[in-house]
Amino acid sequence: MNRFPQISEAEFEIMKVIWDNNPINTKEIVDIVTKSSSWNMRTIHTLIARLEKKGAISHKKEGRIYSYSPIVKKEDYINSESKSFLNKFYNGAANKMVMNFIENDMLSSRDIQELKNILNKKE
Hints:
The protein has a 3-stranded antiparallel sheet with strand order 1-3-2. It is built from 6 helices and 3 strands. Helix 2 crosses helix 3. By secondary structure, the protein is mainly alpha-helical. The two termini are 28 Å apart. Strand 2 (57-62) and strand 3 (65-70) form a beta hairpin. The longest helix has 17 residues, at 74-90. It has helices spanning 9-20, 26-36, 41-53, 74-90, 94-103, 109-122, and strands spanning 24-25, 57-62, 65-70.
């Protein structure tokens, strides 16, 4: 199994912006993130630097502009985190997680119907 860097929730917000807008420069990241958070430019720059230090992103310098791209693929990271979550809380059993959500009324009727449709397609 590939080992991925530990990414905090705040860093993950920056990663989502980079994944969705690859490649993206610092100013563009700041513009997008400040629309949905109260973080200042310095905080965002710190998070970008941490992600680069952890090996999650890389940059290219074009004059005075830094352009960032992900090293870690979004799908791979999410799959890894999902497996980690399942292992930590449900002993790796997705059915136990879904049963817990159903028993605790965490799924709407629409969610349950979508799950049924997915399961029917898989059969």
